[in-house]
Amino acid sequence: MPSPTLRIRLGHPEDARAASSLARRVVRRWILPDQPHDAGQALLQRLGTRALRERMQGGQRFHLAWLGEALVGIAAMRDDSHLVHFFVGTRYQGRGIARRLWQQAMEDAVRRAGTRRFTLNATRCALPVYRHFGFVATGAEALTPAGIRATPMAFETQPEHVARA
């Protein structure tokens, strides 16, 4: 039986339950151990089904990666420039899914808004991934307004990114 093909599509409010489940599993495994307790619990609440559904209904763009019927990755972009959520299920990491998901989200923002500079706040476990994508730290690790320990990072698009979009 052939393995399923990776599909990436925009999320819809009816995807919120699956997105919440994946995001919360990844956060519990990789992010919470390195965060202040209260901030971590607040992050889990912000990743609840209702909260994600409301953001999707409000127009925030969620790019979802699927292998068959399984949701395996999420990239959520705010204002076509700030990557607010980026998760790939633990068992699917190391397969190039993150790169394809980032490319799709970036190209969508470039096409829609002409975005040339992207930002994010990287937790410690995600720093190597974002550096691999070409993001650079723009400051020292600090607590975000939400209390999450993260490093601010930015990525400047190159002309070839714009040409492909």
Query: Which class of secondary structure composition applies to the elements?
Result: alpha+beta
Strand content: 25-35%
CATH fold descriptor: Aminopeptidase
CATH architecture: 3-Layer(aba) Sandwich
Largest sheet: 8 strands, mixed
Number of helical segments with 4 or more residues: 6
Q: Regarding CATH, which class?
A: Alpha Beta
**Number of structural domains:** 1
CATH superfamily, by name, is Gcn5-related N-acetyltransferase (GNAT)
Quaternary structure type: single chain
Explain the overall architecture.
With 165 residues, the protein is an alpha+beta fold. It has one domain (6-164): Aminopeptidase (3-Layer(aba) Sandwich). The protein has helices spanning 16-31, 37-46, 49-57, 97-113, 127-133, 159-164; strands at residues 6-10, 61-67, 70-78, 82-88, 117-122, 136-137, 142-143, 149-156. Strands 1, 2, 3, 4, 5, 6, 7 and 8 form an 8-stranded mixed sheet that branches. Strand 7 (142-143) and strand 8 (149-156) form a beta hairpin. The N and C termini lie far apart (34 Å).
Topology:
Layout: E1 6-10, H1 16-31, H2 37-46, H3 49-57, E2 61-67, E3 70-78, E4 82-88, H4 97-113, E5 117-122, H5 127-133, E6 136-137, E7 142-143, E8 149-156, H6 159-164
Parallel strand pairs: 4-5
Antiparallel strand pairs: 1-2, 2-3, 3-4, 5-8, 6-8, 7-8
Helix pairs in contact: 1-3
Give a short overview.
By secondary structure, this protein is of the alpha+beta class.
Structure keywords:
single chain, 165 residues, alpha+beta, Aminopeptidase, eight-stranded mixed beta sheet, 6 helices, 8 strands, globular, disordered C terminus
